Amino acid sequence: MFSPQGPSLRELAIQALSSVERGYDLLAPKFDRTPFRTPESILDATADALRPLGPFGRGLDVCCGTGAGMRVLEPLCQEPITGVDFSAGMLAQARSAHPDAEWVRADARALPFAEAFDLAVSFGALGHFLPAERPALFAGVYRALRPGGLFAFPIGAPPPITSGWYWALLGFDLAMRVRNAVWRPPFVMYYRTCPLQAVRDDLTAAGFTVTTAPLTALGRREVGSPRYRLVLARRTSP
User: Fold this and answer.
1) In the structure, what pLDDT confidence band is assigned to residue 1 with cuts at 50, 70 and 90?
2) The pTM of the whole model exceeds 0.70
3) What are the residue boundaries of the Methyltransferase domain, all occurrences included (predicted)?
4) What does R_g of the chain's alpha carbons equal in angstroms?
5) Which residues contact 165 (CB under 8 A, 6 or more apart)?
């Protein structure tokens, strides 16, 4: 699961017992050599789905981490692109890999932008927000977009109950709930708290018009539905 250059078990344990911000500061130098980084296949499928909808002006990667999403924004946006994250360590890695992009340290629940971007993306970040925090996140992205701007992010279909992944993700979430019940500060990261319908409802409540596009390049489930969809949330024009 981890490359030899990735974090050790001890390093992962220290990270898991830290806050989210401190944990990612510690993990940042080795993050791209862990399975937590968004796979290239998901980045490529997202870029392919967005290309017919562009080109775009300014782009924003919400919870950018080490900057993997820049691979999506760079060819699609004709104006400067920006990454925002609250981990200084992750931003340092991102800045080193993409020196021409702009980087902002901020909490995604209180984004400091107003009508500045035409496209916003996010990868693998929703699990860091409790359901009660999603309205603030989505409201901030809505404010950050210009009228007609687009917020896009991939979301995976839940694995069937007969799948080993179903029980692995369930076990992870239960372990995190026990950890957060007995240890402070909390480390918020859950895999089963952002089903598509709940996310769609929260986006709609924030003012977005929401559609989805199947990312068929990432395969289909046994029932024939796509394994991943790209959520396309459009800020309506005034």
Assistant:
1) very low
2) yes
3) 60-149
4) 17
5) 159
Dihedral sign for Cα atoms in the order 54, 59, 62, 63: positive
- With beta carbons less than 8 A apart as the criterion, state whether 199 and 175 touch: no
Strand order in the sheet with 145-156: 102-105, 81-85, 59-62, 117-121, 145-156, 228-235, 208-214
How do 102-105 and 117-121 pair as beta strands? unpaired
Entry field: residues in the chain: 238
Domain 38-158+195-235 has CATH 3.40.50.150: yes
> How is residue 136 written in tokens?
């603030």
Q: What separation in angstroms does the CA of 175 have from each of 158, 179, 181?
A: 19, 6, 10
Q: Is 160 exposed, middle or buried (0-12, 13-18, 19+ CB in 10 A)?
A: exposed
Token pair 């820049």 is found at 70
Residues 6+ apart with CB under 8 A from 103: 64, 82, 83, 84, 85, 91, 94, 95
| Packing angle of the helix pair 134-144, 196-205 (nearest 10 deg) | 50
Query: pLDDT by residue (tens digit) across 87-143?
Result: 999 999 999 999 999 999 999 999 999 999 999 999 999 999 999 999 999 999 999
Max Cα–Cα distance, the chain, nearest Å: 52
| CB environment 35-62: b (16+ within 10 A), e (fewer) | eeebeeebbebbbebbeeebebebbbbb
Model pLDDT for residues 18-51, shown as the tens digit of each residue = 888 888 888 888 888 888 889 999 999 999 999 9
